[in-house]
Amino acid sequence: MDRLVNVVRPYAWGSTTALPELLGVAPTGEPQAEMWLGAHPGAPSRTPRGPLDEVIAAAPEGELGAATVGRFGPRLPFLLKLLAAGAPLSLQVHPDLARARQGYADEERRGVPLDAAERNYKDANHKPELICALTPFEGLCGFREPRGTALLLESLGVDALKPYVDLLRAGPVEAALRETLTAVLGADRASTDETVSAVAAACARLAGDATAAGEVRAACAAYASIARHCPGDPGVLAAMLLDHVRLEPGEALFLGAGVPHAYLSGLGVEIMANSDNVLRCGLTPKHVDVPELLRVVRFEATGPGVLRPARAVGGEEVYATPVDEFRLSRFVRAKGAGSRSAHDLTTATAQILLCTGGELYADADGGAERLAPGQAVFVPAGERIAVSGAGTFFQATVAAVETEFAVGS
Fold first, then answer.
1. Does pTM surpass 0.90?
2. 9 is catalytic
3. In CATH, which superfamily holds the domain spanning 310-408?
4. pLDDT by residue (tens digit) across 49-102?
5. Catalytic member of 75, 99, 246, 280
6. Which CATH superfamily includes the segment(s) 2-139+248-296?
């Protein structure tokens, strides 16, 4: 077992207070957006044995287990994060595995530098992800049913939105969503500036209208806030095609390939396949490749699909997803006599244990560690590990291998 020292990424959208409050340290005054826990080469966690990516590379089967290496290769297949949003993230989608491999190979063949602004594919992997709220969390996830969006846009009374209203009502769901998003992202920038300004004012008015439905007021307040953060950005109009969602602590969202989404505010635990592939739709000054984006987006009105954990053996709460690369569980250990008993968490795959509340003790073959909120350990495959104390922690493992181990144990 290795205590992890983790890198905090200071992206501009990060909260200045959420991560410091969790970690019990003084704010720096600068945004602190993401704390990465894992072996991604962009910001690997450090261990007493060295950077985690190098530790794994030196003995992949010993660290990850033979089954994980056989299935995913000699690297940790997931990346765990603490994400603290103080402003909207970019509106984005992630490719499926086939498109990621094709896109990466194509850009490599054309010699597009990995750090080029126009580069879409940083690796050949997909990036399904799960975000679990630690505080009230707000975001956008998946397309709203087109006729519902048409009613919302119409209620704003902005003449420039009428062509989009007509497109949303013109045909089947897939065609209506595709044509509307294409029109929004292809609109003249000067006219878009005026439209976004008018939409922001209209959304602010509707958000304060006590006669409007509560979910409409909440969505309009979110869109007005996005417009204030991203004035004139076509992504503001694209964002209005998506469902607005609020998560309570413990609730989660799963984002599969092609599902447009944006996180707006709050602190959460995020887990994903170990990839950095993002295609942006807007709410960002970064590159937006509209033709490639339209190849990747799934034009389906699926709803946000709030995910709640399923209770399993020993108090484990599992966030079930259709993904092999990761499995996220939560454990909430109450104070009292029971806190002295220990959860045996030994698995056939590598795991990361992250404390998010209270005071916990991890006891492994390699020693013992006290864990306060925001602190974490890496446990190699097969190493005996047990956790005691009172508090909340998350366990990140490899889903496919963990399932096989549980069935055969």
1. yes
2. no
3. Jelly Rolls (2.60.120.10)
4. 999 999 999 999 999 999 999 999 999 999 999 999 999 999 999 999 999 999
5. 280
6. Jelly Rolls (2.60.120.10)
